[in-house]
Amino acid sequence: MTNDQIQENDVTTGATVWLTGLPSAGKTTIAYELAGRLRAEGRRVEVLDGDEIREFISAGLGFSREDRHTNVQRIGFVAELLARNGVTALVPVIAPYADSRAAVRRRHQENDTAYVEVHVATPVEVCSVRDVKGLYAKQAAGELTGLTGVDDPYEEPRTPDLRIESQDQTVQESAASVYALLSERGLA
Ligand SMILES: Nc1ncnc2c1ncn2[C@@H]1O[C@H](COP(=O)(O)OS(=O)(=O)O)[C@@H](OP(=O)(O)O)[C@H]1O
Ligand SMILES: Nc1ncnc2c1ncn2[C@@H]1O[C@H](COP(=O)(O)OP(=O)(O)O)[C@@H](O)[C@H]1O
């Protein structure tokens, strides 16, 4: 077998799927639901969970604009490495700034690595009722400032590859819509 044939047979197409949106929008839930489905089909999948990343490779970073940008660039770097090597990297990370997200997309384009941006566009009114981690309540009580979407910016993606209105869907429906897009693009 020639080298070309080995490559052709062994390489599966990886991709980065970045799920951006407000706290409690549903990013993490959709990522794990989708991960389960992709794994069941034999794909290699990693979820780069924002909270875990902040414990390890982004330990010490806070929530200033600069720190969030650094956090997003580090995650983008790791995701691209994984995706380039055949893994589907699912990234449920807020990434509130358009220029940070654009830089991650560029890194993928420069390496010919597939990149999909999903805006989990749950309105802040719904997120603040869900309040999975109690952050909205803390902000309202004056115990926290700089909460994304409340008193810190969230720059909505203008042209995401997919927009999900999670408030009108089940978790399974939301995950299925991402799966359908990946399928369409030959990535699932
Ligand atoms: N001030 C403030 N603003 C937003 N989020 C906050 C804040 N403080 C803590 N958290 C929790 O940290 C998670 C966000 O981390 P990320 O790494 O995803 O954010 S970022 O892209 O660097 O902005 C985020 O996780 P998710 O709720 O899963 O989005 C929050 O739980
Ligand atoms: N269609 C949906 N997609 C994702 N989450 C949903 C959906 N409908 C309801 N939820 C609920 O919303 C919450 C989202 O929390 P989480 O995934 O931790 O948000 P995030 O990671 O964006 O902070 C979960 O409790 C989840 O069960």
UniProtKB/TrEMBL annotation:
From which domain of life does this come?
Bacteria
Q: Which Gene3D superfamilies match?
A: P-loop containing nucleotide triphosphate hydrolases
Gene Ontology CC: cytoplasm
In the Enzyme Commission scheme, what number(s) does this protein have? 2.7.1.25
Q: In which pathway does it act?
A: Sulfur metabolism; hydrogen sulfide biosynthesis; sulfite from sulfate: step 2/3
Q: Which residues form the APS kinase domain?
A: 14-164
Identify a single GO molecular function assigned to this protein: sulfate adenylyltransferase (ATP) activity
Catalytic activity annotation: adenosine 5'-phosphosulfate + ATP = 3'-phosphoadenylyl sulfate + ADP + H(+)
> Which BP terms from GO are recorded?
hydrogen sulfide biosynthetic process; sulfate assimilation via adenylyl sulfate reduction; sulfate assimilation, phosphoadenylyl sulfate reduction by phosphoadenylyl-sulfate reductase (thioredoxin)
Q: Which UniProt keywords apply?
A: ATP-binding, Kinase, Nucleotide-binding, Phosphoprotein, Transferase
UniProt keyword Nucleotide-binding present? yes
The UniProt annotation places ATP binding at: 21-28
- Tell me the PANTHER family matching this sequence: SULFATE ADENYLYLTRANSFERASE (PTHR42700)
Q: Family assignment? A: Belongs to the APS kinase family.
User: What does the function comment of this entry state?
Assistant: Catalyzes the synthesis of activated sulfate.
Designated name of the protein: Adenylyl-sulfate kinase
UniProt lists the gene as cysC
